[in-house]
Amino acid sequence: MKKVLVLGSTGSLGKQTLQLLNKYRKEFEVIGLCANQNGDLLNDQLREFPNASVLLISRDGKKALNNFVESGPADLVINVLAGTIATDATIKALKKGKQVLLANKEAIICRGQNLTQLNQDLIKETGVDHLIPLDSEHNAIYEILRHASSISKNPQTLKVKNIYLPCSGGPLLGKTKKDLKNLTLSQILKHPKWSMGAKISLESALLINKGLEIIEAHYLFNLPLNKIKTFLHPECQIHGIVEFTNGQIYSYKSQPDMAEHIENALLRSINGQPNLKSKIKKITPAQFKKLTSKKVSQALFPGINLILNLFKTSPKSLKPFLQKEEKLIAKLLTGKITLQEFLKNLLA
Question: Residue-wise over 317-330: b if at least 16 C-beta within 10 A, else e?
Fold first, then answer.
């Protein structure tokens, strides 16, 4: 039985994670729960997992978070916190040899090279992958790569030509640049397909999130930026595509539901084999061309180029950008600035 810490247990992903851990109570024991500021829900969760210790970051601080992760007996750390505060904790978890299921994109963006190197060292030492992505797109790519390798006659020769990350277009799909001037906060937070927290909803609508996902994929899959493509896919049924140099193309198709990707990662952590139920399929060049033909409008969705330009200028510039973004989002959600002021400051 694996001992588990859940960082961000009160958020949307955290609540889904706990539901799945309940499903696999024979395989996992929750020994720690951590939230940023929702102490009431954290206490409710403690009644469900009475043997867990708890940490409230807004009360106990970043140092306590790092110690919570580093010093405890957990085998597995599930990091679904939002924000840069969990970056150091993720590094410390890997340094202690703990397996990490990661949805905290800030950790990869800010310390991607360190995280992937630590993971490679652990794989050499133990033969086990210690860093498993939870985001739907990265989890889909992760599973496609392993599936293709497992059925290949010569997996050593299997090389990636390109990977493709879908963009839904979210609540701005079909809008014009002029429409942004009259957009309300409630409109931009209402994603037509996904149910997400406020921060990720804002990032997703502007495709800042997609820019960050490209950087994540660069680190997670050791690919140059020019091999990571995007395409517009409002149906949200394709979660990732991998095109190999031998001409084979695989897609991961399912409903827009994060729970299955969390479950994939949980099962990977205990037996190395998730229950994919034929979600990964080989597709024809014609199907591939049709799926990836819709391009993203950079005029309407400036977020991708904003992030990539920052990264190309200096990878270190992304951390202050993310910290600035966190402060602006906090002001926006508490009514201290308007949506238009938020967009002007963030995209300037």
Answer: ebeebbeebbebbe
Fold of domain 2-134: Rossmann fold (3.40.50)
SS3 241: strand
Q: How far apart are CA 83 and CA 76, in angstroms?
A: 20
Query: Domains of the chain: which residue ranges?
Result: 2-134, 142-347
Please say whether the dihedral angle defined by the alpha carbons of residues 257, 260, 261 and 266, taken in this order, is positive or negative. Answer: positive
Reported as a single tens digit per residue, the pLDDT across 171-194 is 777 777 777 777 788 888 887 777
State how far the alpha carbon of 187 is from the alpha carbons of 82, 198, 202, 331, in Å. 21, 12, 10, 18
290/284 Cα distance (integer angstroms): 10
List the alpha helices (DSSP H) in the chain: 12-23, 39-48, 57-60, 62-71, 87-95, 105-126, 136-151, 185-189, 198-206, 208-220, 258-271, 285-291, 303-313, 318-333, 339-347
Backbone angles phi, psi at 158, to 5 degrees: -75, 115
Rounded to the nearest 10 degrees, the angle between the axes of helix 198-206 and helix 339-347 is 60
Please give the structure tokens belonging to residue 298: 């950079």
SS3 159: coil
CB 208 within 8 A of CB 130: no
Q: What is the dihedral of CA 300, 332, 201, 233, to 10 degrees?
A: -10
Per-residue pLDDT of 5-54, as tens digits, reads 999 999 999 999 999 999 999 999 999 999 999 999 999 999 999 999 99
The set of residues, in sequence order, having a beta carbon less than 8 Å from that of 34 and lying 6+ positions away, is 5, 6, 7, 8, 9, 54, 55, 56, 57, 65, 68, 81
The phi-psi region of residue 314 (left if phi > 0; otherwise alpha if psi is between -120 and 50; otherwise beta) is beta
